[in-house]
Amino acid sequence: xxxxxxxxxxxxxxxxxxxxxxxxxxxxxxxxxxxxxxxxxxxxxxxxxxxxxxxxxxxxxxxxxxxxxxxxxxxxxxxxxxxxxxxxxxxxxxxxxxxxxxxxxxxxxxxxxxxxxxxxxxxxxxxxxxxxxxxxxxxxxxxxxxxxxxxxxxxxxxxxxxxxxxxxxxxxxxxxxxxxxxxxxxxxxxxxxxxxxxxxxxxxxxxxxxxxxxxxxxxxxxxxxxxxxxxxxxxxxxxxxxxxxxxxxxxxxxxxxxxxxxxxxxxxxxxxxxxxxxxxxxxxxxxxxxxxxxxxxxxxxxxxxxxxxxxxxxxxxxxxxxxxxxxxxxxxxxxxxxxxx
Length: 341
Fold this sequence. Notes:
- It is built from nine helices and 15 strands.
- It is of the alpha+beta class.
- The chain has two domains: 2-41, no CATH class; 47-339, Creatinase/methionine aminopeptidase superfamily (Creatine Amidinohydrolase), CATH 3.90.230.
- It has a four-stranded antiparallel beta sheet. Strands 4-5-7 form a three-stranded antiparallel beta sheet, with helices on one face. A two-stranded parallel sheet has the order 1-2.
- Helix 4 packs across helix 5 (90-102) and helix 6 runs antiparallel to helix 7 (196-209).
- The protein starts with a helix and ends with a helix.
- The relative contact order is 0.13.
């Protein structure tokens, strides 16, 4: 019984006990440290979970297709509704996205409560809309949507900033600078042993060069049909754990102008082996999220040829992978979205 837990811990004496102080209840730590030597390390189980096996990786990729299909149908629904003059609030949009995900096979629920931020609300990083705070969406400006699903195949987490209508030159520049950082991180090649914090600057460099920044981490680990935020690896300057083959992490730089708008681009990426040379083993990322970036908010004049090539290749992959699961109308809509400039 749980009431016997304290007595059980007190019976453990003269042992070397491995525990992670960052994850262990202080009461448990106190009991175990009285008569034992404490080894403060990350649990080997956590590292085993972080490195996905081939079955888990295949599941992630299948879940991403389901998520993309739901996103296409939801985005098409939203766009059509606004064009028709329908009254749609941010809360209704969040609920409708959950509904479209629920139609996919093996859907078990949302991986977290969707963040649907419109206008000034999107500048609040972890905005949570309620019945009392919901607002009507208008056919103008940007909409930030951060959401995800739990499928038996895997866990999804995606953020896209969508164009609802006219966007200002400032919004387009901010959108594009964030995208440049996202692409730089996605294209990174790095030697084995590199920590996520060492790659964080790749996503921030273009913002920093323009006197901009964001106040959250660039990426977090993701579990396989488990926690959408899974340790111990992340892309924060203070994280000390190296990236390893098979890990799945988010890539989510952003920019937030208080009282005006917010922008974030988030995809999930798989760490893969790239090559081994005389200098060591090199790794890379494979983007597994399958949903396009809204080209209507991109300032293509500040993208390099390499960035444009990456973006086109990514969008081509999305269409070839996802379109077989769409009807003709949905395929046409997706193709138009990716070709819009």
